[in-house]
Amino acid sequence: MKKMALLLFVSLSFTSCIDFKTNKSSSEPKPEDFTTVVVNDRYQIDIPRFMKSTTGLNDEASLQYQNLFKEAYTIIIDEPKDEFMDLFKELDSYDENLSLIENYRDIQLQLFNERMRVNTQSSPRSLKINGLDAQQVDMDAHVDGVDQEISYFLTFVEGPENVYMIMAWTLKSKKEEHAKTYAVIAESFGLLQ
User: Fold this and answer.
1) Exposed site from 69, 71, 114, 145, fewest CB < 10 Å?
2) Dihedral pair phi/psi, residue 81, rounded to 5°
3) Distances (CA, A) of 70 to 9, 16, 31, 36, 56
4) What is the DSSP string of 138-173?
């Protein structure tokens, strides 16, 4: 069983967060700027062509892409929802008044708050992504070892068998530059089975 992403950020590599002066793009992302990536024949997602596959961002992630020069990072963590629910019910941390995806969101956000100093956090937004229940939250936080604030774009998606956390991040100074691209990434998520 995966460690329920409890060690979510232990293996994230933020040491590459160097603020290169790149031109900010105010234009809308175009479909031709993305390529569709299929992961383990289970899901697909559109990733910007400027990002490249990597393996060093998080050991629990089933997808990892980055562009060091643009300070753009994206991962997806997926885990069986039955195991998630059973574990957190056993730990008496599952709120029966919330949906499964809201519980998953809240537990992941709690882990964020334990591992970094969250300065601002948006209210959760409910949405449907290709027919799946989803929740989105954005936040800015300070991470040990990084001088600048990091902006996170988090999307939690509930599938029939798994829950997924789509996490994209960048330096706060590049938040506006990447926000629309990160929205396209999250909204393109789709299951194949």
Assistant:
1) 145
2) -70, -30
3) 21, 11, 19, 20, 17
4) EEEEE-TT-SS-EEEEEEEEE-SSEEEEEEEEEEGG
pTM of the model: 0.85
Beta strands 52-53 and 117-121: pairing type? unpaired
Classify burial at 140, counting beta carbons within 10 Å of its beta carbon; exposed 0-12, middle 13-18, buried 19 or more: middle
Q: Name the E strands within the chain.
A: 34-39, 43-48, 52-53, 63-67, 72-80, 117-121, 125-129, 132-142, 150-158, 162-171, 190-191
CA 160 to chain centroid, in Å, comes to 19
What is the Cα–Cα distance from 175 to 125, expressed in whole angstroms? Answer: 18
Q: Which residues have C-beta within 8 Å of that of residue 96, sequence separation ≥ 6?
A: none
- pLDDT tens sequence across 116-142: 999 999 999 999 999 999 999 999 999
**In 3D, which of 165, 42, 167, 184 has the Cα closest to residue 103?**
165
- Residues 68-117 pLDDT 10s: 999 999 999 999 999 989 998 998 889 999 999 999 999 999 999 999 99
Number of CB atoms found within 10 A of residue 179's CB? 14
* Six-digit token string for 169: 């991040």
